[in-house]
Amino acid sequence: MYLVSACLLGLKSRYDGGSNRGSRNPVLPNTLLVPFCPEQLGGLPTPRSPAEIIGGSGEDVLAGKGIVCNERGEDVTALFLRGAYESLYLARFYGAEGVFLKDGSPSCGVNCIHDGTFSGCKRAGMGVTAALLQQHRYTLFSEREFFRDR
Predict the structure, then answer these.
(1) Domain count of the chain?
(2) Measured between alpha carbons, how far is 37 from 16 in angstroms, rounded to an integer?
(3) CB under 8 Å to 60, separation ≥6 — which residues?
(4) What pTM, to 2 d.p., does this model score?
């Protein structure tokens, strides 16, 4: 059993109400995949204002050294933290073997996140949920490892 960012399975859970599946096929046929969206679990609506980590990465947010703000300048850190801890609960509840996450996301970024300037630029780093799951020794994968070409 694997947890999977809901947007990768075609659920319209992205900040803009879209998904990230497209016409791609998951690489794990006949495997239980449990969709989840940390931002929705944290209480954010869909669609929602885009958010980025300011002052570091997901690890910094968990340590109280960074914050998550939306493009309107609202601090949504508490909602991102709530979603991360709810995601950890799901991973434990289901006994997840691993977690597939959407890279670039302030929640789910495994290898990269946006740089906090809302300019579209990315940098190395993890999102809040990815960082928490990694701290609890879950194996993380990005969407590049989740999809195969048709």
Answers:
(1) 1
(2) 13
(3) 53, 66
(4) 0.95
